[in-house]
Each structure stands twice: as structure tokens, then as C-alpha cells.
Specification:
Order of helices and strands: HEEHEHEHHH
Radius of gyration: 20 Å
CATH architecture: 2-Layer Sandwich
Shape: globular
Structural class: alpha/beta
Helix content: 25-40%
Number of strands: 4
Length: about 150
């Protein structure tokens, strides 16, 4: 066996996974956490997994890019087209946790408009709640800690 074949086989078996399904309980969104460097092959695997599990228009699949370090910009056009097709025929798709670097890669690849349609941005409440404060909340106001996964 040649040394290059053994090296290639070793690196293939130790490669970390490119994505992982985070199945929540109940009827919440299905979250796909993406990791590391994503090339064309990894993005195709993600699309295939979404097609398999996100068939119903009632489903919501969120792609979490928080732990992505790099995306091959040459593969982003096909990836964005496949996500748009999936959103039109199956589950709704949203992208969360995009870093400024990954956002710039989408822009460089010419996928800015597709990204704006797919990216989820939280909407701040513009008017305070009309409900009266109950119980201890009147005495000791509660200031919740902002959720890290919603503020991007």
C-alpha cells in the first residue's frame, strides 16, 4: 500500500462531521448545526439531508452557521439555489448565526439577495406589553438576560 493512500484514508476517517441535526422536542424548528470548513461536498450532504427530513411545508429547518469557519464561495450559488428550491417545495429554511465573514462570502458569490430571503433576523418588540405586571414582578422587576442565539 502506498504512503499517500494510507495518509488519505487516515485523514478521511478522522475528519470531523460537517453538520449535526439538533432535534428539539415538540413542534419546534429542526436545527442543523454546521461546523468548520464547508466545501461543495459538505454543502451537498447538507442539502441531501434537508431534502430527506424536511419534506413537509409545515416544517421549519434552521441552518446554524455559528461554528462555521469558512465556506467555499464557489459552491454557494448552487447551495443557495437548492435552499430556495427546498423552501418552495418542502420545509421552510432559515439561516442563523452567520458571521460577518460568511455574510461577505455570500455577497462575493453573488448570493446576497438569496441570503436576505433566507436569513432569519429577530424582530424587536416595538411596543411594550399591555399586560399588567402580576405578583412579584410588580415588586421586583425582572430583566431577562438576552438570548445569545437570537441576537446576531
Amino acid at each position: 500500500m502506498s504512503a499517500s493512500l494510507a495518509t488519505a484514508r487516515r485523514s478521511f476517517t478522522s475528519d470531523p462531521p460537517a453538520f449535526q441535526w439538533d432535534m428539539g422536542r415538540g413542534a419546534g424548528p429542526r436545527v442543523v448545526r454546521l461546523f468548520g470548513h464547508l466545501g461543495e461536498r459538505e454543502l451537498q450532504h447538507v442539502i441531501a439531508a434537508i431534502r430527506e427530513r424536511g419534506r413537509s411545508p409545515r416544517d421549519l429547518v434552521c441552518l446554524d452557521f455559528e461554528q462555521v469557519t469558512h465556506v467555499d464561495y464557489r459552491a454557494l450559488s448552487g447551495f443557495a439555489r437548492a435552499l430556495t428550491r427546498q423552501a418552495n417545495t418542502g420545509a421552510d429554511i432559515c439561516l442563523v448565526g452567520l458571521s460577518a465573514y460568511v455574510l461577505a462570502l455570500f455577497g462575493v458569490s453573488g448570493q446576497g439577495p438569496a441570503l436576505r430571503r433566507l436569513e432569519w433576523k429577530p424582530v424587536e418588540e416595538t411596543e411594550p406589553s399591555r399586560r399588567p405586571l402580576l405578583g412579584i414582578a410588580r415588586i421586583a422587576p425582572h430583566h431577562p438576560v438576552p438570548r445569545r442565539d437570537l441576537l446576531r
